[in-house]
């Protein structure tokens, strides 16, 4: 098998595995939680709170964004098969982060995961920054046992299927192609687009369910579009420009032959996410 043939075979296998974890609107409307009588709003609130816990704890212990995204995808997949009434998402979140780091071969100690997530989970009036838990604390052993048990439960529910496609690589290839085949680190506009688009993708994992519903290439294309719109002097290719040789430059949505209906839905979900965050911030601003 030639190198190119092997690469295409690996890509086809990854695509097939990813399709197994892509859900329709009808399937999302009939999750185990909905069947158990939990409202859509309550289920979404619980799962997204756990996703934010993963994101915040991951940043605190310097986990790479890709590993954080993979961890949140494990969480979302888990609750497509299990109800939030049988296990609280906040109890599963630390194990998802621990497992996601393992899958991305990022060395993270169980102790760091436990301490960071425990601190975030225990924020209250008495402990505004959260409570510290030391290894010598009797509660630490219980937390560690709960982490390992939850990890086994995740592996069982997901049937050890830990293959995850993420949008970051697709974003890099798209930006490189759209801006002169230069590495984004060597091109100022490309670098700016990558920074903004990365932030959008990071937020999309914990603030939307688009990674359960759509192709990661389409999500990367939407993140690129929004990021490019934010960068001054950055022109999006419309697909009509031709260079001196007569070759036509592809439009941004043609690079991965994106499904425009999916692109529109992804865009709406991301816009809605930021609008909700903005409204939440406005409600928290004290009057007067």
Structural features, described:
This protein has 13 helices and no strands. The chain is mainly α and 288 residues long. The protein starts with a helix and ends with a helix. The protein folds into two domains: 22-157, Cyclin-like (Cyclin A, domain 1), CATH 1.10.472.10; 168-284, Cyclin-like (Cyclin A, domain 1, Orthogonal Bundle). Helix 10 (188-207) packs across helix 12 (216-230). The longest helix has 25 residues, at 260-284. GO terms for molecular function: cyclin-dependent protein serine/threonine kinase regulator activity. Residues 41-162 form the Cyclin N-terminal domain.
Which properties best describe this structure?
Cyclin/Ssn8, 288 residues, mainly alpha, Cyclin A, domain 1, cyclin-dependent protein serine/threonine kinase regulator activity, 2 domains, Cyclin-like_sf
């Amino acid at each position: 098998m030639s190198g190119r043939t092997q690469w295409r075979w690996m890509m086809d296998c990854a695509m097939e595995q990813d399709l197994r974890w892509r859900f329709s609107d009808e399937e999302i409307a009939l999750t185990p939680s909905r069947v158990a009588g939990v409202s859509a709003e309550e289920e979404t609130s619980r799962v997204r709170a756990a996703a934010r816990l993963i994101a915040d704890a991951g940043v605190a212990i310097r986990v790479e964004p890709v590993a954080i995204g993979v961890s949140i995808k494990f969480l979302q997949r888990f609750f497509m098969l299990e109800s939030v009434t049988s296990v609280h998402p906040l109890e599963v979140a630390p194990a998802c982060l621990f497992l996601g780091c393992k899958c991305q071969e990022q060395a993270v100690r169980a102790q760091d995961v436990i301490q960071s997530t425990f601190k975030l989970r225990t924020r209250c009036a008495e402990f505004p920054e959260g409570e510290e838990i030391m290894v010598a604390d009797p509660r630490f052993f219980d937390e560690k046992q709960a982490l390992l048990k939850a990890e086994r439960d995740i592996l069982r529910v997901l049937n050890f299927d830990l293959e995850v496609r993420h949008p970051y690589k697709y974003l890099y290839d798209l930006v490189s192609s759209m801006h002169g085949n230069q590495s984004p680190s060597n091109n100022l506009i490309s670098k700016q687009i990558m920074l903004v688009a990365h932030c959008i993708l990071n937020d999309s994992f914990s603030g939307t369910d688009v990674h359960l519903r759509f192709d990661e290439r389409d999500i990367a294309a939407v993140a690129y579009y929004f990021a490019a719109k934010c960068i001054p002097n950055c022109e999006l290719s419309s697909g009509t420009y031709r260079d001196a040789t007569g070759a036509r430059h592809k439009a941004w949505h043609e690079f991965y032959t994106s499904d425009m209906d999916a692109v529109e839905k992804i865009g709406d979900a991301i816009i809605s996410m930021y609008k909700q965050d903005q409204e939440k911030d406005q409600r928290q601003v004290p009057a007067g």
